[in-house]
Design brief:
The protein is mainly alpha-helical. The chain has 2 domains: 54 residues, no CATH class; 60 residues, no CATH class. The protein is 47% helix and 10% strand. It is built from 4 helices and 2 strands; from the N terminus they run ββαααα. Strands 1-2 form a two-stranded antiparallel ribbon. A hairpin with a 4-residue loop joins strand 1 and strand 2. The protein starts with 6 loop residues before the first strand and ends in an 18-residue tail after the last helix. The relative contact order is 0.07.
């Protein structure tokens, strides 16, 4: 960065009693503004990390703005549905485990609410509806 000036900004978070340091090339913004922008940026980063890890959105299908919006909105609706199920059932699901279990069993004909309430109950009779008998 030869010839470019940068500014170091320090901000005290009084709730955690921690000093954060940021680098910026904007010399007119107040330190609180720089800190709030970094905070917003971090929330955006964690949002996309959440999309990639929980819903396996690793790349976008389309490159147009509309295609990206559709994929993000679809993923958000999926997250909301999974969080709704997580809050309504009796079993204390970790969100990523719930997503994975539903992904693995998406085409299994079961009562979702009964299964999500008690996923590891043994002794349930297998569902023979729609199942062919070989012998």
């Amino acid at each position: 960065m030869e010839g470019k000036k940068i500014r170091q900004v320090r901000v005290l978070d009084s709730t955690k009693n921690v000093v954060y340091e940021f680098l910026t090339n904007n010399f007119s913004w107040k330190p609180k503004t720089v800190a709030s922008l970094y905070k917003e940026r971090w929330e955006i980063e964690t949002f996309f990390k959440h999309l990639k890890q929980k819903l396996k959105v690793t790349s976008f299908v389309g490159t147009s703005q509309n295609a990206v919006y559709i994929q993000i909105w679809t993923a958000l609706i999926g997250i909301l549905l999974f969080k709704y199920i997580q809050k309504k059932v009796k079993y204390d699901w970790n969100l990523s485990n719930l997503v994975n279990f539903i992904r693995l069993n998406i085409f299994v004909k079961i009562d979702l609410w009964k299964w999500a309430d008690a996923p590891f109950i043994s002794g349930r009779p297998p569902n023979k509806e729609g199942q062919f008998v070989l012998f």
